[in-house]
Amino acid sequence: DIVMTQTPLSLSVTPGQPASISCKSSQSLLHSNGKTYLYWYLQKPGQPPQLLIYEVSNRFSGVPDRFSGSGSGTDFTLKISRVEAEDVGVYYCMQSVQLPHTFGQGTKLEIK
Amino acid sequence: QVQLQQWGAGLLKPSETLSLTCTVYGGSFSGNYWSWIRQPPGKGLEWIGEINHGGSTNYNPSLKSRVTISIDTSKNQFSLKLSSMTAADTAVYYCARWWPIRAPWGQGTLVTVSS
Q1: pLDDT of A96 over the 90 cut
Q2: A17: distance to nearest CA of chain B, Å?
Q3: Residue A58: closest CA among chain B residues belongs to which residue?
Q4: CA dihedral in degrees (B99, A8, A100, B107; nearest 10)?
């Protein structure tokens, strides 16, 4: 299985400040079709995960543009340009280039 | 807009079989893959498996011997069965659209295994 490792596991951010989460995979997530199957989800308290970013850098419908994704191969980053109170929750990266699809352990974002 | 509503028994005894169903509202049911994912209390996410409208499945090897995912295209539903449940299977179980986009997810069903 591809192991997804996120850092940090928790972060506390002042509203209006940026935040960054790293996700590293144990194997390249580049598919032979040229796409890289790396996703970012946010799970707000008491809710199912909601898709933020698909295929490394594409924002899902309705996701604010303060969220951005980048990276390639095995190293990926989710950035929030200006954190807002509604961004609290646990962020997960996920790979689907290889079965079984696997998730990172999660990064908990809190507001200072 | 696609929405998923799931239901099933929330309390099971050890060795019983979990049975959950997810109904898809809105959008196209065919041409998509549909998945089940679970999350033990306070822990991370584990992908269980997926199915397409033709009934082709892929399962997580860690659960493959106990999992069956099926589909009923006439009802826009897909289902999960997980046999020989133990306390380690206690989790919130989610259904989700999985292809071509891995969203949305259902609201989740807490399944507790206890004697």
Answers
A1: yes
A2: 27
A3: B101
A4: -50
**Cβ–Cβ of B101/A60 closer than 8 Å?**
yes
Taking the Cβ of residue A10 and every Cβ of chain B, the question of whether any pair is shorter than 8 Å is answered with no
Strand order through the sheet with A67-72: A4-7, A19-25, A75-80, A67-72
Q: With the C-alpha atoms ordered B93, B102, B62, B75, is the resulting torsion angle positive or negative?
A: positive
What is the mean pLDDT of the segment spanning A73-86?
A: 98
Whether the Cβ atoms of residue B4 and residue A48 lie closer than 8 Å to each other:
no
Express each pLDDT in B52-93 by its tens digit: 999 999 999 999 999 999 999 999 999 999 999 999 999 999
Query: How many whole angstroms from its chain centre is CA B25?
Result: 16
**Contacting residues of B for A104, CB less than 8 Å apart:** 44
pLDDT tens-place string over residues B5-41:
999 999 999 999 999 999 999 877 788 999 999 999 9
Omega cis (within 30) before B104? yes
User: How many residues are present in chain B?
Assistant: 115
Tokens of B43: 């822990």
Other Cβ atoms less than 10 A from the Cβ of A31: the count is: 13
